[in-house]
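Hey, quick one: can you model this chain's 3D structure?
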Amino acid sequence: MKNKALKRLIYGLLAFLISLPLFSFKLIDPLKKDTVADSGFKIKTIIVDAGHGNRPPGASRYSPGSEGSYSLERNVTLAIALKLQKAIEKEIPSIRVVMTRTTPDDVPFQKRSDIANSNRGDIFISIHCNSLPYKTSREVVGHKHHKPVYRTVSVPDRSGRGVLLLVYSTKRIGPQIEALRENAEIGVDQQETQSHREDDPMSVIMLDEFKNKYRKQSIHLADLINNEFTQVDGRPSDGVREQVLFVLDHTAMPSVLVETGYINNSKDEDYLNSETGQNEIVDSIVRALKNYKDEVEQVSK
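Sure thing. Here's the predicted structure for all 301 residues.
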């Protein structure tokens, strides 16, 4: 170690890491409830991200999202996200909810992750609607010299149903490592440590531990949400998958993207636009968050 400040950074991070519960992806054994002790770690802030949005005035680029037969993803996600905010604040009042978007206008991906990281979020939940791309097929449009003449046509694929949970892919870990590094400042001047910690073995090891820990927690939280959707609401599910997504890759916390349904499927679209459907989606996420919170704030003796 080249200076005392860097030592304080490393040891501070190490103490913080040890204080957090490590996951085995198994629910706490009901037989051991009376042997559970307070870990000292508390979930304080949840970031709720309403996917996509309208083109902001003057913006040259934005992500409009998927379309159904009569509704738009960006409107559905905002409605669900706002309901989720209220439900978390009511059901888990100790938690502060930070929204990345509260208006119809889109928010750039980088700003969404910046909001999450600057607010020191403990969980990042991104709300989206799924859709399938058009299918292409060839059809006969006539004959020429006794041979069929084909043309290629595109038709909507409305076969998708149900939910899908996404977590960040290990194929692109660089952005999250950088987000972790930026959020690891504990009272130490950034310029003082920048030239050292990227090449310091202890820093690399600790950042890797955080990355692996957050990845495991992301998968576990996604599993909890998926179980609520399937076992309580009876919804079909495509399960939990890895995917390279900017908002997940650039957040330094457990992060899950929830594809709440296929908006280009007529049954899912009706469900996503109904009060009943939106409330069920919100209730399932809140139940999963409660279970997750109970687990990470406790350790077995």
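One thing worth noting: The beta strands are 36-38, 45-50, 96-99, 123-130, 135-144, 147-155, 163-168, 237-243, 255-262, 298-300.
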